[in-house]
Amino acid sequence: MNSGNIINIQIEDDSDVPIISLNETHQYYEYLRDGLTKRGIQTLINTLAWPDSLSIDKAIIPNTWTALEYTVHHSTRDAYEVLRKHAPTNNPFMVMEFYPGWMDFEGKKHHTLDSQDFAESVEKILSYNGSVNFYMAFGGTNFQFTNGGDWELVYNSITTSYDYDAMITESGDAHETKFLAVHNAIGKYFPIPPMPTPPSPSPKGLYGTIQFDFYANLLENLHAFNILYNINTPIQFEYLNQSFGYVLYSTQLNNFIDRIEPLFLPWMQDRAVILLDGIIQGIIGWTEKDPITLINLHPLKTNPNPRLDILVENKGRCCGDLPTFGCNFKGMKDKPRFGLKELSNWTITKLPMDDKLVNQSMTFNWKPVTFNMSVISSLFYRSTFTINITQPLHSFLCTDNWGHGFITINGFNIGRFSEKGPQRTMYVPAHILKQGSNEILVFESDRRQTLINMKERNMTFVDHHLWTD
């Protein structure tokens, strides 16, 4: 790389934790640096550090410069001084990752950051003749299953929305207050045109309420997917050559009448829906309120040999995870136990829910939705909605009254939804929509309330994001 628009490349150790030694971190950074230069990269290369002595010491290696990352809760003066202590010359003061908000986690509070506090912190960096890069300047979306996870004492799944409370929102609009506040802060140091008010948001498409009239039971339509038979021990996603989606582990129980035994999963990630003869028994998962791996299976009087299904979802791999945490391998390994008995002879169904899903769903046995229907299994729903304008607009689809799952529109997976919040709406970009009839497919793996009025099996388009309190 000898010319062009790229003037700098950052290398980063995102598992920056104290238990990794100084020498090991230096070797890692040198490996990354040398890997770039051996491949012809001739730009500037920087490392990244938090504004403390240990992190900066780990990041300083020859033939690179070191940038900082921090939040408004850090002192810019202290950050500047500690950087100058370890890199007094030939190292610019740049905050390469300055956070206007933070990512949201499923079931946690929606993150926001006061606009004026953030703008004042930007101004403080510039007052030290510093440079700043915003992470994120433009909020994003974890479409399909591209959301990650994070490990802070416990595992947390990142939401589909990656809006980050950024200056430019997920749908491309100026933040109501933060965009103008940051603009004015920068304007005190650089000649930029004045902006009395922030740009107006783009118009949004209000395409009405979608009523779902047909459903298909996942367990009754496995013929559409890749099935592996007679597997003695469950296999993880990665060893099935599957990166995302779900895997279904199924086996037969024997002599089950009048028995109530605990089911023990020795190792499972990230979230498992437990079904017995197609009826949901409970949920096991790191992100559940009670993250236990024991669940009582209630006997079905009518069948002494019921089928046990364990539907495991990959909720997102961790960034900067240490291998011993095991956060990045998904599915089940080792044999589950039912009571004292190990369960073997598994059938494994790969459910990547990828771009083949639309064609696969055409082979499903679709049934009409009936009112006051109990949702006791993992179900697909389908419907259509009509757009009358030639150039569709961005929109948001509200998932209130739905449980856990994902949505595809015209074959494009717009991401996961969860009744645990904080995200209540899904961003629908204009480019996946079309004039005329649009197809929507929803998969709901489970929900808290099983008996519902099927009139509530609908979703409504709105013109802005909604979040739980």
TrEMBL record:
Keywords: Glycosidase, Hydrolase. Coiled coil: none annotated. GO terms for molecular function: hydrolase activity, hydrolyzing O-glycosyl compounds. SUPFAM superfamilies: (Trans)glycosidases, Galactose-binding domain-like. GO terms for biological process: carbohydrate metabolic process. It holds the Pfam family BetaGal_gal-bd. Residues 2-188 form the Glycoside hydrolase 35 catalytic domain. Residues 379-438 form the Beta-galactosidase galactose-binding domain. InterPro entries: BetaGal1-like_ABD1, BetaGal_gal-bd, Galactose-bd-like_sf, GH, Gly_Hdrlase_35_cat, Glycoside_Hdrlase_35. Residues 234-351 form the Beta-galactosidase 1-like first all-beta domain. PANTHER family: BETA-GALACTOSIDASE RELATED. Belongs to the glycosyl hydrolase 35 family. This is Glycoside hydrolase 35 catalytic domain-containing protein. It comes from Adineta steineri.
